Amino acid sequence: MKTLHGQHIYLRALEPEDLDFVYQLENDATVWEISQTQTPYSRFLIRQYLDNAQQDIYEAKQLRLAICKNETFEAIGLIDLFDFDPKNKRAGIGILIQHPDNRNSGYGKEALELLIAYAKDYLHIHQLFANISVSNLPSINLFTSFGFELIGIKKEWIFNDGNYSDEAFYQLIIKK
């Protein structure tokens, strides 16, 4: 499927071989603020998740894809559609590139471009939204470069390391 293939990366469904990668990401406390996680996940739970990850987006209400460099099968990040609402044609979108060496290399931008096109062309999504910490300037810049607009600020929304921080709500209305 060329739809999810870009110039430097492609998006693919999660596979059982992604167990270690997903385990590392889900148990990386430095990204728990982003994923709103507070406890580690066991390999058993992640294996169960991967076993069920092939559910249709209309059933699961989410779609998580691995971001891979074109020349490899190994994942460098994940990109998600979540809170999928087919009646109102909207979904949340999130992205995480695991290793800092792969960040700011254009992979996230290309992955976001591919998933927006997929959401528009195949799922007929009318709007996407993203929840981004106000201190996460790289993500804010990434999403706004695609036309996501700041809709509002959720004050003291995230509690992390004994402090509250604000979370911004961004929205993209997809034109046909």
Automatic annotation (TrEMBL):
It comes from Flavobacterium lacus. The keyword DNA repair does not apply. This is Diamine N-acetyltransferase. It holds the Pfam family Acetyltransf_3. PROSITE patterns: GNAT. CDD domains: NAT_SF (cd04301). InterPro entries: Acyl_CoA_acyltransferase, GNAT_dom. One of its GO terms (molecular function) is acyltransferase activity, transferring groups other than amino-acyl groups. Residues 9-171 form the N-acetyltransferase domain. It comes from the Bacteria. Keywords: Transferase.
